[in-house]
């Protein structure tokens, strides 16, 4: 995995040319009225969809407060839109991100947890890596006593093509530190499931 600093600048012209080629390859006419602006439009959309390649978790997990809260903090149902790296089609669903702060009670802004999810979701991904990367970034930056990340997504590569099983959801989790302790983990999971 390349660090953000080593990722070359986004090449919109190259993306545009590639989309035009793709349209030709599937038998479309990229000059017809409805498609004329599509390569440029898709190139702009891809820049947004893959913006996370040029971001590091340190860019977003910045604000930390010492408010002395040492108990579990869990943000549930963070909307996730990511792109399956095998088929370049979306997978989408929710992430639940929880942690138990360090004993000094170092916590981060709640929105920063959602931003962290975005940094890793806006890359070509597999769900397992997305889940692990979120958890490991929290461990590294917040130095909490425990972390739990659960991601539940529907993969369009399984719904709209291939095996064609719309509605199936894949659940992945990553558990670090004292969240691995059975009681703590059970408390966190009951908060995740309690909707
Ligand atoms: N573990 C994992 N697998 C994924 C993820 N996204 C897509 N896949 C799977 O990646 C696999 C790629 O399999 P291949 O056999 O190389 O590709 P394919 O012929 O298009 O496979 P089908 O989707 O079964 O038609 C498929 O089984 C997908 O369901 C993910 O996030 N995690
Ligand atoms: Zn896929």
What's the structural blueprint in terms of helices and strands?
Elements: H1 12-25, H2 38-49, H3 57-60, E1 64-66, E2 73-84, E3 90-100, E4 106-108, H4 110-121, E5 124-125, H5 127-142, E6 146-155, H6 156-159, E7 170-177, H7 182-193
Parallel strand pairs: 2-5
Antiparallel strand pairs: 1-4, 2-3, 3-6, 6-7
The structure holds guanosine-5'-triphosphate (GTP) and zinc ion.
Guanosine-5'-triphosphate (GTP) binds at residues 84, 86, 126-128, 155, 157-158, 162-163.
Describe this structure in words.
Homopolymer. Belongs to the GTP cyclohydrolase I family. With 195 residues, this protein is α+β, with helices and mostly antiparallel strands. It folds into 2 domains: 46 residues, GTP Cyclohydrolase I, Chain A, domain 1 (Orthogonal Bundle); 136 residues, 2-Layer Sandwich (GTP Cyclohydrolase I, domain 2). Strand 2 and strand 3 form a beta hairpin. The chain starts with 11 loop residues before the first helix and ends with a helix. It binds guanosine-5'-triphosphate and zinc ion (ZN). Zinc ion binds next to loops. The site of zinc ion (ZN) has 6 residues, from loops.
């Amino acid at each position: 995995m390349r660090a953000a600093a080593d990722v070359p600048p986004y090449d919109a012209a190259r993306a545009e040319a590639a989309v035009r080629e793709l349209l030709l390859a599937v038998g479309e006419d990229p000059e017809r009225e409805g498609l004329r602006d599509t390569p440029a439009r898709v190139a702009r959309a891809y820049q947004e969809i893959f913006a996370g390649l040029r971001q590091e978790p340190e860019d977003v997990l910045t604000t930390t407060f010492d408010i002395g809260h040492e108990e579990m903090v869990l943000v549930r149902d963070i909307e996730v839109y990511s792109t399956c790296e095998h088929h370049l089609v979306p997978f989408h669903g929710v992430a639940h991100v929880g942690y138990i702060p360090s004993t000094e009670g170092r916590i981060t802004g709640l929105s920063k947890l959602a931003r962290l999810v975005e940094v890793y979701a806006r890359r070509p991904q597999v769900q397992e890596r997305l889940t692990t990367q979120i958890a490991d970034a929290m461990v590294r930056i917040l130095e909490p006593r425990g972390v739990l990340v659960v991601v539940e997504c529907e993969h369009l590569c399984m719904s709209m093509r291939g095996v064609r099983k719309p509605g199936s959801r894949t659940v992945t989790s990553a558990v670090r530190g004292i969240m691995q302790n059975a009681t703590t983990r059970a408390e966190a999971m009951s908060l995740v499931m309690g909707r």
